[in-house]
Design goal:
This protein has 265 residues and is of the alpha+beta class. The chain has 11 helices and 9 strands. It is 44% helix and 20% strand. It is globular.
Length: 265
């Protein structure tokens, strides 16, 4: 079946780049990024950061940054359109790191896609690539049910979640049991994970909005702009204002979240 490459599935951006140690590349556009690490090793700035080695594929529907831990090479394509949206809706998380061996044709298809300039053929190859990626297995082990539920709850309710004690009550377990189980599975505490999720949300608003720090604090679960600045500088190393000034891209406008929409009611 053939699809109109301008509506159903289209390649709107691509990357074919070699990175030196500590060099970074930011993926910040809307749509579905398919990223292949064809050589070397690096880290994606997800929550928490995820290490990738040669042959792994990353599927992401949200902004992320990749930092090379050793010299490496990346191939990546950004897909938009109805088919890409359908694929995105089936992803379990905003960022999904997959084993390359579970979809062996994906690397060849992505390379072929980036070399092809024909819109119709790009659509056909892209559709075949997404079909191949449908069988991709996660590079991370499955989380225990309690931890998976905690991660989902934190991601969905970070703005209004008071803290780990409230989270444990929502999940019906003791705080100590949740902390122990979460740290064993994720390598960090649920409180640290909550902070990282909030900082990630702050960065998105700093990068794509012109809100004041007080508004950003209220949207991301911080009690005020002063507290936000203290936590941000501790976690990131620089102030929110400095981070915003140093951001590589400000061109992507994200749709308003429900929390943002409530500001105008």
């Amino acid at each position: 079946m053939l699809y109109d490459g301008t509506t159903a599935l289209r390649l709107t951006n691509s990357v074919n780049q070699t990175l030196s140690v500590q060099e970074t590349i930011q993926f910040s556009s809307d749509g579905l990024w398919v990223i292949l690490l064809s050589s070397g090793e690096g880290t994606f700035a997800d929550n928490p950061p995820q290490k990738a080695t040669a042959g792994m594929l990353a599927l992401c529907r949200d902004a992320t940054t990749f930092t090379a831990d050793q010299p490496c090479h990346l191939l990546a394509g950004l897909f938009e359109g109805r088919i890409a949206s359908d694929f995105i809706s089936g992803l379990p998380f905003d960022f999904y790191l997959a084993k390359g061996e579970s979809c062996p044709q994906a690397a060849q298809l992505l390379d072929e896609l980036l070399r092809n300039n024909n819109l119709l053929e790009q659509t056909q190859i892209g559709f075949a690539l997404l079909c191949e990626l449908g069988s991709a297995d996660s590079a991370a082990p499955a989380l225990p049910p309690l931890v998976a539920e905690a991660v989902e709850d934190i991601r969905a309710h970070y703005a209004e979640l008071y803290g780990v004690e409230e989270l444990s009550e929502r999940l019906g377990v003791s705080k100590s049991h949740l902390v122990r189980s979460f740290h064993q599975a994720m390598g960090i505490s649920p409180g640290k994970y909550l902070t990282e999720i909030r900082i990630h949300a702050v960065k998105q608003l700093l990068l794509h909005r012109e809100y004041s720090l007080e508004v950003i604090a209220s949207l991301c679960g911080f009690s005020g702009s002063n507290y936000l600045c203290r936590v941000f500088k501790k976690e990131v190393g620089i102030s929110p204002a400095a981070w915003r000034a140093n951001a590589l891209s400000r061109s992507t406008i994200l749709p308003h979240s429900e929390a943002e929409q409530s500001l105008y009611i």
